[in-house]
Amino acid sequence: MTRRPPRPAENLGETIGAAIRARRTSQGVTMQELAERAALSQPFLSKVERGLAGLSMGSLNRVAQALGTTGVGLFGGMQPDRAAGVVRGDARPALPSDDGGTVAHALTARAGQLRAVEITGGPPELPASPYVHRNDSLSVVLSGSYEFETDGERFVLGAGDTFSASGGIPIRYRVVQEPAQMLVIIVSEDVEVVNSPLPAPIARRKAPRPGMHRGPAPR
Questions:
Q1: How far apart (Å, rounded) are the C-alpha atoms in residues 93 and 118?
Q2: Which residues in 144-183 are b (16+ Cβ under 10 Å) and which e?
Q3: pTM of this prediction?
Q4: How many CA atoms lie within 13 A of 153 on its CB side?
Q5: How many CB atoms lie within 10 A of CB 114?
Q6: Distance of alpha carbon 24 from the chain centroid
Q7: Looking at residue 120, what DSSP letter applies?
């Protein structure tokens, strides 16, 4: 019997709901436990997983954090059963923030090894809770300027500047100058990154000094 491929999600809410449900069940977390961790009601979370209710960016980040991932990780990849995909500029899935000042657009049409999200705007102050991507991430400022903070260091980036970070590092950012927009690319949390040690350097053979004989000792 041939197994039928999973049906692609028909809308953004259904796609995000399916991603949340898949990650929750893979970790053995009950819906009630996740709802409590994310400060949501269990009936509402049930609707979210079935695609009957949507999440704001803030709520999605809380759910993602409770599941050990980020909002970009859940939102950035849309259809896991596709080997290639296109996202049209006028049909990009959008996710608004709680205050409506920030909008995230998904740029990747498939849930592969990379997630890409375009963020317009951002918080005016550094948020209390940082983002922690499991794997490496890269942020490219497209317009305006942002301030990034990680490991006690702060960096102000303008258009054309990039910020890259290793996985597991807490990151916070805020808007410094509007209109601000940036591209965020991360390696999917599902990818197991193996850091292979560099090979040991080969010892350089010293050149013989003038007059030194390296062959057999003369008789």
A1: 10
A2: bbbbbebeeeeeebeeeeebebeeeeebbbbbbeeebbbb
A3: 0.69
A4: 6
A5: 17
A6: 17
A7: E
